[in-house]
Amino acid sequence: MLFTPFKVGSLEIPNRVCMAPMTRARWHLPDLVPQYYAQRATAGLLIAESSAVAPLSVSRDFGGRMDEDRWIAPWAKVADEVHAAGGRIFQQLYHLGRKSDPTRMPNGAQPVAPSAIACTGQIMGKQGAMVDFATPRALEISEIAEIVEQFRAAAVRSKAAGLDGVEIHGANCYLIDQFLRDGANKRTDAYGGAVANRARFLLEVTDAVCSVFGADRVGVRVSPHATADGTSDSDIVTLYGHVAEQLSARRIAYFHLVEAIDYGVARRSPPPSTPLVMPTVRAAFAGPLMVNGGYTAETAEAVIAVGRADLVSFGELYIANPDLVTRLYNNGPYNPRDQATVYGGGEKGYLDYPSLTVV
After folding, report:
1. Do the domain assignments include residue 254?
2. Residue 13 forms beta bridges with which residues?
3. Residues paired with 268 in a beta bridge
């Protein structure tokens, strides 16, 4: 079933293999980026790297952006080359919130978040040394609408660039995720406390983006089990069940869930002590469910066959295997990934991975 056609919102796709969004940090070489995505255009749907909607969302150099009109033309070249190769591409939009690099903030600004709580860990600063994440400034309630507008304006640019749709990044402990989870959100106003309040920001962003593209060209990604930086929630099943129900009512194109359940093989992620979200989300969300989380050809087929998901996105495998659909169909072989060239660099480790010769 992985290789059968499917409909995602208003988009007809030839297979259920999707390319997950991955930051490759090559925008200092803008002529390479369209080639990279065009090489992978046999995917049912490409989801381009997360692109910042605001100047206060900054991490490594040369990452994707859509916070200014000057980014429309470069992304239009990506869309044009992907379409010329027969592909379809959504752009992921995000705001890092408290995970922004404090050494790269414009004019020395302080990162923002729902609450003034720093995430744990470090980030590579602009001087090449690891630095602690900063304690963010809690957003004033009046500022939240401004960030919602930044998402809407970025979606306007995405549409102007000719991209087929957008994915809202509500995962990876970034700003939307920080609002969702009660370990990072300690607000006592309309955006904190009860699950419905904590989901308000995501839903307002979704409504704003849908006003640009239409709901049938908008996806949302979440990662309930990402907790490495201290972003946690006391009841992920209730939280993401509510989110799925609300997004279902909006009839968005797909819900993108980072969670692996490997049917037919002896492996399960997250560990057994952690509750699974997928069954609740599947019941609450009436549209296409996309899953991500180290799936193989075998486990991707299995999760679709038992009806737990409709689409599977692949991340790391797509870095070194531009023709991943063919390789999955043939059960490999797979090119090994050069870890040293994953983030930043030039053509090496970006455009030079060979495609499979099928006799």
Report:
1. yes
2. 6
3. 261
b/e per residue 88-121 (b: at least 16 CB within 10 A):
bbbbbbbbbbbbbbbeebeeeeebbbbbebbbee
Q: Which of 181, 199, 182 is nearest to 190 (CA)?
A: 199
318 among known catalytic residues: no
Nearest to 18 by CA among 337, 330, 335, 318: 318
When divided into structural domains, the chain yields a total of: 1
* Active-site residue identified among 94, 174, 191, 350: 174
**Owning domain of residue 182:** 6-341
pLDDT by residue (tens digit) across 156-209?
999 999 999 999 999 999 999 999 999 999 999 999 999 999 999 999 999 999
pTM attached to this predicted model: 0.96
Type of residue found at 84: A
Q: Does any domain span residue 348? A: no
> For residue 265, what is the domain's CATH number?
3.20.20.70
pLDDT in tens, 261-287: 755 444 456 666 788 999 999 999 999
What one-character-per-residue DSSP string does 276-305 give? P-HHHHHHH--S-EEEESS--HHHHHHHHH
